[in-house]
Amino acid sequence: QVQLVESGGGLVQAGRSLRLSCAASGSISNYAMGWYRQAPGKQREWVADITPGGLFDYAASVKGRFTISRDNAKNTVYLQMDSLKPEDTAVYYCNFIPGSSWGQGTQVTVSW
Q1: Are 52 and 38 in contact (CB under 8 A)?
Q2: What is the pLDDT of residue 1?
């Protein structure tokens, strides 16, 4: 089973940027991939996804601020997060679509 490892999270001030990475232990080239997040006390929610051909979609709450991309040669999916807001604070996960086992995620904390 392919393992997914998220990285790039951290503590940032509102308005700043972070770039998350999701490295897979195997090929992702034939799969749609998604980013998800789970804030404290809330259910995990979908953030963005990208098809094998590079088509993408975003949740309304992040559209215009987040950018998903992929590098199939590196088996890695990225999430560029700009203009971060405190409400973006969550643990961020990536996964195949349809989903597989979840990784550990990476914590993003946005402060004023």
Answers
A1: no
A2: 86
Tokens of 53: 């051909």
Q: How far apart (Å, rounded) are the C-alpha atoms in residues 68 and 95?
A: 13
Q: How does DSSP assign 14-55, residue by residue? A: TT--EEEEEEESS--TTSEEEEEEE-TTS--EEEEEE-TTS-
Q: Element (H or E) spanning 49, and its range?
A: strand 45-50
CA distance 9 to 7: 6
Q: How far apart are CA 73 and CA 90, in angstroms?
A: 28
Residue type, 97: I
Write the CB contacts of 78 (distance below 8 Å, at least 6 apart in sequence). 19, 20, 21, 22, 68, 69, 70, 71
Residue 71 confidence (pLDDT): 97
pLDDT tens, position by position, 34-87: 999 999 999 999 999 999 999 999 999 999 999 999 999 999 999 999 999 999
Count CA atoms closer than 13 A to 45's CA, side-chain side: 16
